[in-house]
Design brief:
320 residues; alpha+beta; Arc Repressor Mutant, subunit A; 5-stranded mixed sheet; 4-stranded antiparallel sheet; 11 helices; 24% strand
């Protein structure tokens, strides 16, 4: 149970660290609430001060109005909705504590505390050394790709490590094109004992993979990173984080048809349609690693082109 909570909290933490933005307490999904509260308890997230003089109406989500107090309650007068009472969670904001994140990563890598962390660019840090190689932490992989100059001083003699969350799209095996070695946060690190633990790169044992991939949500594993399609494939199919997020979003809607923008917003993906994250590039065509997730999508997701909606029937069966 604790391991599952740590895993969910770590996924939540990595996603929020990548976004580099604050969020309001009420916006935390019920499913993510235990993970979020665990992060608050270990101080990985901290309160964020916002300007609460004018806020977005929680009813229509369109109009911004000034707050005022009425009979001890906080309200706003929305031009469309009229007087609307504001609850505490709609004003309380949170953000990832970047200093905590850097400090715990350095501890997990057993980096000497005599080596101070340096800010190389906005959202990019040089946090120390691991195996005598510089370690660079960045909020996104794209930030490093767009600022490759930050790697030049670090790789004067050896190739640096670059640590970032996985992007919300399919990523090639060497996204930094030989400039540095990439360590995805979600795969190479995890929460443990209130800190961040480093997972040495290496092959996953068959027993460990089977345990991780076992179906929990219908055909999907606990973290939606594996899907079982007995009729098409005897072995579970591995999914990328973006693909897993789309399936998780479809599962959340419990078999109710939804428009593409609703699903992709729920999944936290910038693509227009669910199938976008499953498409196979020409150079990867014929490779089961890329073809099988697309087969799973086609087998599980039904599309109503006229209505522009998508539905996953197995989610309805599981909640019936």
């Amino acid at each position: 149970m604790i391991d599952s909570l740590n895993a969910r909290a770590w996924q939540f933490l990595c996603a929020r660290f990548s976004d580099d933005s604050h969020w309001f307490d009420e916006a935390v999904d019920t499913v993510d609430r235990p993970a979020f509260e665990h992060l608050v308890a270990i101080r990985a997230v901290k309160p964020f001060v916002t300007d609460n003089r004018f806020v977005l109406c929680p009813c229509c989500g369109l109009q911004v109005a000034e707050l005022y107090r009425s009979c001890g309650a906080v309200e706003l007068n929305c031009p469309d909705c009229g007087p609307v009472r504001i609850i505490e969670g709609q004003l309380r904001a949170w953000a990832i504590d970047a200093d905590w994140f850097v400090r715990k990563l350095r501890s997990g890598l057993d980096t000497s505390m005599r080596q101070s962390a340096l800010v190389l660019a906005s959202g990019i840090w040089l946090i120390g050394q691991y195996q005598r190689r510089p370690v660079i932490l960045a909020r996104t992989l794209d930030a490093v790709v767009h600022h490759l100059s930050v790697l030049r001083p670090a790789r004067a003699s050896v190739m640096p490590w670059v640590v970032t969350p996985r992007p919300r799209r399919n990523t090639e095996s060497d996204p930094l094109d030989g400039h540095a070695q990439w360590l995805p946060l979600e795969e190479r690190f995890t929460l443990y004992g209130g800190g961040i633990s480093f997972i040495e790169p290496g092959p996953q044992s068959d027993a460990s993979r089977v345990e991780t991939a076992k179906p929990v949500h219908g055909p999907f594993s606990e973290d939606f990173r594996w899907v079982h399609l007995v009729d098409l494939q005897s072995e579970p199919i591995a999914l990328t984080l973006a693909q897993a997020a789309v399936f998780r979003a479809l599962w959340h809607f419990a078999g109710q048809p939804q428009e593409a923008h609703t699903i992709m917003s729920r999944a936290g993906c910038s693509s227009d349609k669910p199938i976008d994250v499953f498409k196979v590039k020409p150079k990867f065509q014929g490779d089961p690693k890329y073809e099988q997730p697309l087969q799973a999508y086609k087998a599980l997701v039904q599309t109503d082109r006229r209505a522009g909606t998508y539905v996953m029937a197995c989610a309805a069966l599981a909640t019936a």
